[in-house]
Amino acid sequence: MSSTYGEVSDAYGDRWFTESVRRLFDRYSDADRGVDATLSIKDLSRSLFSHLVDRDSKKVGTKPVILMDEYDAFMQKMGKVPPEEFDSISKILSDFIVATFKENTSLSLGVMTGVMTLSRTGILSGLNNAAVHTLFDEGSAGFFGYSEDDVGRLLEIYAPEGSDRSRMMKTVKDTYDGYVFGGKEAYNPRSLNLYLSAGRFDSPPPDYWGGVRDNSFLNALIGATPEDLQESIALLTADRGRVKKLEISQTAVYQDLYDSPTESNLCSCLVSMGYLRARPLEERSGLSPVMCEVSLPNKEFQSAYGELIEKVRSKHLARDGFLRALYSEDGERATGEFERHLARMSVRDGWDHDRCKQHLVDYLSSRLLDARAEAETGNGFADVLVEGDRDRPCVCIEVTTSDEARTKDLDAVLDCCWRKFRERGYCRDRPTCLLVAFAWDRKSCRIGIRTSGEFYREAL
User: Fold this and answer.
1) How many angstroms separate the Cα of 209 from the Cα of each of 174, 305, 389?
2) Does residue 283 lie within any of the structural domains?
3) What is the pTM of this model?
4) At what angle do helices 216-223 and 263-273 cross, to 10 degrees?
5) Is-contact 179 144, C-beta < 8 A?
6) Which of 32, 226, 298, 420 sits in a 20 to 30 Å window from 99, CA-based?
7) Is there a single domain that holds both residue 267 and residue 198?
C-alpha cells in the first residue's frame, strides 16, 4: 500500500474508520514488517465495503471494483527460470488472485488485464468462473485504441486551420495505426495523444514507442530462439509490406517458447505483446488457435526490432560472398559470386529487364538491406537503390539485359549501363555512393562498381 492511514484519514475524515481499519492500513503499508500480502486487497475491500457508508442514513455500502493491470508482467522479468522457482512465484500470485477475486465477498466487479492469458500456468486455475477476452474477440473492438473516425475528428480539433489534414492522416496512419482488435483496426492511443499534444504537425510523427519502451525482454525473448527463427522474424519486421500466414495461439505463454521454440509460438507471444499484428483469416472458435496474416503493425515498431535486424543483417553481410564483394568494390569477384547464385536457379528466357530488376530487389531485401526499385534520383529513376547507413554507403544499381542491348557481348552491355549513369546522373549528389553497372544475360552477368564521386569526375 502506498497510502498510510493518516493520509486516507485526512481525505475522508476519522468517522469513516474503525480501529480495525486503522490496523489494516498500518499493517499493509509497513513494508519492513514483511507481512504476507496475499489477503491484503481482500481485507481492505471488505473494510471499504463495511465502513465507507453513510452511517447517518444507514445506507448499505457499495462493494468496490478492483482493477488489476499487467498481472503477468512479472513473467517478462523472469525469462527462463528453474521450474521450482517459477512454481514458487506462480503460487504466490495465484493465492493472491484467488483471495482477491474469487474468495472476496466484498467485490462487485474484478477486471484483470495483461499480455498473456495465463490459464495454462496454473496462476488462474482458481478462477474457474472467469470470462477470458482476447484481442480476437469482436466485443473488444473499439475499446483499446482510436478508430479511423476518432483520429479524423481529433485532427479536425487539434490541427491548425488550413493545414493539410489528409496528408497528416496518411502519415499518422502509417506511423501509429495497424493494431487489430476483434477484426477492427486501431491506432496506438498513447503515441497519438503525444503527437497531438506536441503540436508539431509540419514534422513527421515521432517514434514515441522506441523512446520509452524497454525492449530488453523482446531482445531476450528472441535471443533465446534458434537462429532460423531470428532470421524469420527479422525478415518480417524489416519490411512492413511483408506478410506471413501462421497459426496464432490465443493462450500462448512465455514458457511455451522456451519449451518449444517454433515460429508459431514466437509470433503468438509477439502478437500478444503488441509487437506484431495478426489479422484473422478464419472464424474464431473459443480459445483455439487462429490462422492469421501476421505482419509488422506500423512504422513506429520497426525501431523496436532495430537490434535484431542489424544482428541478422550483419550475419548476412559476413557470410554472403556477393555482398562482401559488392561493398569491397570488387566487380570481378561480385560477378563470380552472383553467377554461382544464378547457377542454382531456374532462369528462363522470359527474364526481361523488369524480372531481372525485381530479382535483385528480392535478393537484397532478403538480406535485410533497404532495397527499392525505381527510386527517383538525378534526372530519372534508378533500377535499384539500396539505402546506406553509418557503416555502409548507399548502392545504386542500373541493370541492362543482353536483349535490351541487342548483343551477347557482356562488356558492350556493361558500357550501356555506364552510359545510363552518365546521361541521367544517378546519385551524382552522393559522392560516396557505389554505382553498380549490372550487365545480364540469362545465367551470365558482368558487374562493374565505381564510387559516384570518382565516376562523375572522370565523366566531365
Assistant:
1) 14, 12, 22
2) yes
3) 0.75
4) 170
5) yes
6) 32
7) no
